[in-house]
Amino acid sequence: MYLKKMFNLRHTLAFRLTLWYATIFAVSSFCAFLAFYLIISSVIQGRTDQEILNEISEYSSLLSLKGIETLKTSLSLEAESEGVNKIFFRIATLKGEELFSSKMSSWGDLGIGRTALESLRNGADHVFETLTIPECQYKVRILYGIIGPAKILQIGHSLEDNQRLLDVFRRIFGGTMTVLIILGAIVGWFMAKRALVGVEEVTRTATDISKGAFEERVSIKDRGDEINRLATAFNVMLDRINELVAGIREMSDNIAHDLRSPITRIRGIAEMTLITSKSMDEYKAMATDTIEECNRLLEMVNTMLEISEAEAGAIKLTMEKIDMAGIVLDACELFQPAATEKGLMLTSGISNTDNYFIYGDIQRLQRMVANLLDNALKYTPSGGTVTASVTLNEGQVVMSVSDTGIGISKDDLPHIFTRFYRCDQSRSQAGIGLGLSLAQAIARAHSGNISATSNPGQGTKFTVTLPQSSPSK
């Protein structure tokens, strides 16, 4: 069980974040150490070179003041005091002929470098070399410098002290790095766990919801960080899902209710015809009624599908530049016979000289206008007036349909765009309760909106706003 938990831990986000923290910290520390190490090495090397150069200057002065014999004695004493295995001196000519050397038993067969002699003969004051000698454990820093006429001094200085100092630095840093990486991993783990507390809470809430606890929500803490915004967005999403689920349930109930009536009528017509009818005309009448009911069912299903596509953003619009005023005028002309037959006055207050062009799908916009006009004519008593108009307002085309009909109560007004919702006073009218829902879906699919105002007994006004900008789809 413990091994399984450890294995699962490797696949957690907290473990990966901790690994990233530790890796970045280790790499950063190593780079800092490397830079610091190179700086220290350079400083130590520069100090060593300067000390050897100072010795060249001192011995050159000694040679000029007291002669070569005194210089030889001084070099021998210096080598003995420093340690013959740590430093050596050699006096030679520019041709490479050795004149004197301290004890060289610890330095093997180290000779005079030809390249260095060539550089000195060409005018160089001094030449540095760093050599690795098989007989020596540490590298050797060698300086060639001119100390007198046709005379050079070769000084070999073991870098043992420098290497020991750098070795101590590496060991100290290595131990410190190990401790810091462990501490960094522990701190990184706690930081990762702390940062992911909100994510774990969202996960727990999602798990509870998947088990049926739909009322669960993520607690919002006053942190103001990304996790807090995630929790807020998650809660908003859950509220929206609840609304959609409630809407689906309500829609399912409405569909079941609205489908039951035509199906029951179709079955009743068929049963009565089979039981009582004897003539062909009665069977033909049954077929006609059945077709009408089927058409009503198909209209309901097709309208529902179109509304669902529009609300989901999956509707395919054929966008083109169209004249909204022309659509309204054509719709008024189309509905004029129906208005005359019912004894209504259908008017349009539109100026043909104005620019009412928008980008949209002409067929769906025609259907939206037709639904609004049909709705107005349906609920306006004889002798009333229905007016359709188009205006411009700050880069938007505003289309309105107003009537002097029965109006809508304040309780019903917020729900009139809900699918299958029908006001009490509209129950006696034919319809399926989807016309306004479709009109709203079409308006929103064109980045617009639709609203309604009404006074019971005085009339209703529907207003559609559509942008004039170019289409983004």
Beta-strand portion reads 15-25%
Task: Name the helicity range.
Answer: 55-70%
Gyration radius from CA atoms, angstroms:
49 Å
- Report the CATH architecture of the largest domain: 2-Layer Sandwich
Q: Biggest sheet: strands, sense, closure?
A: 5 strands, antiparallel
Can you write the helix and strand succession as a string?
Answer: HHEEHEEEHHHHEHEEHEEHEE
Oligomer: single chain
Number of β-strand runs: 12
How many helical elements?
Answer: 10
Poorly predicted tracts of residues: 1-7
Question: Would you tell me which CATH topology of the largest domain applies?
Answer: Beta-Lactamase
- In round numbers, the mean pLDDT is 81
Query: What is the topology, as strand order, of the major beta sheet?
Result: 2-1-5-4-3
Instruction: Name the CATH superfamily classification of the largest domain.
Output: PAS domain
Domain unit count: 3
Apparent shape = rod-shaped
Class computed from helices, strands and strand pairing: alpha+beta
Which CATH class of the largest domain is shown? Answer: Alpha Beta
The end-to-end span amounts to 55 Å
